[in-house]
Design goal:
By secondary structure, the protein is mainly alpha-helical. 76% of the residues lie in helices and 0% in strands. α6 packs antiparallel against α7. The radius of gyration is 20 Å and the shape is globular. The chain starts with 6 loop residues before the first helix and ends in a 6-residue tail after the last helix.
């Protein structure tokens, strides 16, 4: 693949995607077979998944947050530094952006835990992802530090909140025997975000604006849907 040159980049992503998709189906399939073929005494012993838990319910809460975990992060430490003009050398600029985005992501997760922000923190994460992606779409091709730095901070917050809340959603809603498999599925969907910088670099500037605009709309839709659902659902309220 490396010997193929530039086309090998797309091939490597395709191979990786195929492997993780097959692995996901294999793990979930094995987990569901275990559920179906398990001994009846175990299923009837009172240890069954409590009400409000289930495969579909867990994924329906967590998956809408998953794409924005690494889409936000890679937009911050790959795509934004490529457009940011500073006195730093390119590798140093990219490294600094990575430190800022990942550092903010970690800090906001600690704050969310300490201050007990609750499930609406996931809504906030999706809103922040939508705002930052829309700003990146509307921004000029060359960014100044005055515009680039706030974008990095917002993208870091979006990534951290979506990651934390998506994982907690799984813990709260997934049947215990499927929790590991569904966590793997969640991470597989988050990894889709790693393809964003490649997509933006491969297409033209006009198409890149369209991609970012569509992503902003989808992130905002995920936020609105989650906020409305939390108003009528007792998810994580106990």
């Amino acid at each position: 693949i490396a010997g193929a040159g530039r086309p090998g980049i797309q091939v490597s992503f395709a191979v990786a995607a195929a492997i993780v998709v097959l692995a996901t189906f294999a793990v979930v399939g094995a987990a569901r077979r275990t559920e179906v073929t398990g001994p009846a005494t175990h299923r009837d012993s009172g240890q069954a998944a409590p009400a409000g838990r289930g495969l579909r319910r867990a994924l329906s809460w967590a998956i809408p947050l998953a794409p924005w975990v690494y889409a936000s992060a890679t937009l911050g430490f790959v795509a934004i530094p490529a457009r940011l003009h500073t006195a730093l050398a390119a590798p140093m600029a990219a490294g600094t952006a990575t430190l800022i985005v990942n550092g903010v992501s970690g800090v906001v997760q600690v704050l969310a835990r300490t201050l007990r922000w609750g499930p609406q923190a996931g809504t906030a994460g999706a809103v922040l992802a939508a705002l930052a992606t829309a700003a990146a779409a509307m921004a000029p091709p060359t960014l100044t530090p005055a515009l680039g730095l706030p974008l990095l901070l917002v993208l870091g917050c979006a990534s951290g909140l979506c990651l934390r809340e998506g994982l907690i959603d799984l813990e709260a809603s997934a049947p215990p025997h499927l929790r590991g498999a569904l966590t793997g599925v969640f991470y597989v969907v988050t990894y889709v975000g790693f393809a964003l910088p490649l997509a933006l670099a491969t297409v033209g500037s006009a198409a890149a604006v369209v991609i970012l605009s569509v992503m902003a709309v989808l992130a905002f839709a995920a936020a609105v849907t989650r906020a409305a659902r939390l108003r009528r659902d007792g998810h994580r309220q106990d």
